[in-house]
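Researcher: We're teaching a course module on how sequence relates to structure. For the next exercise, students receive a sequence and then see the predicted structure as tokens, so they can try to spot secondary structure elements on their own. Here is the exercise chain.
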Amino acid sequence: MTRFGTLVTASENDDHNTLICTDFAPEFGRNNVFQVGRNEVKSDLRGVPNTLGGRAIAGGQSSDALRQKLAEGWRFSVTELSESYGIDAYLASRPRADVLAIIRKSGLQFLAPTQALKAGAGDVMMAYLPKTSRLK
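Model: And here is the predicted structure for the students to work with:
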């Protein structure tokens, strides 16, 4: 496992995802385990210890919600930012984008729902886009 630095669980079973993330957090580090479907901003998680499960990705959306978007024509997009096409232009051209991760020179960074989006030239944006979004 030492050659891997990040764990992402994305099965349909949120309890299973939580168990896997909890079990592997000591191996990967708490900040490096993520799960689809966990919504860190829901009020019903107030009583859940932060040592259970992984950090939320995909805006905390469930795998069912992501599959529904796929059926509606959503698709994944990978776009490299540059000096002339920065983060502001990227977000303006994709107002409904679900930014999932950023590929930086230092490695892959998944974004939690509450995390501020900071990216610069050379960073590569990984996003889930609705069918009607323009691509560059």
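Model: If you want an answer key for the exercise: Residues 1-64 form one domain. The longest strand covers residues 98-104.
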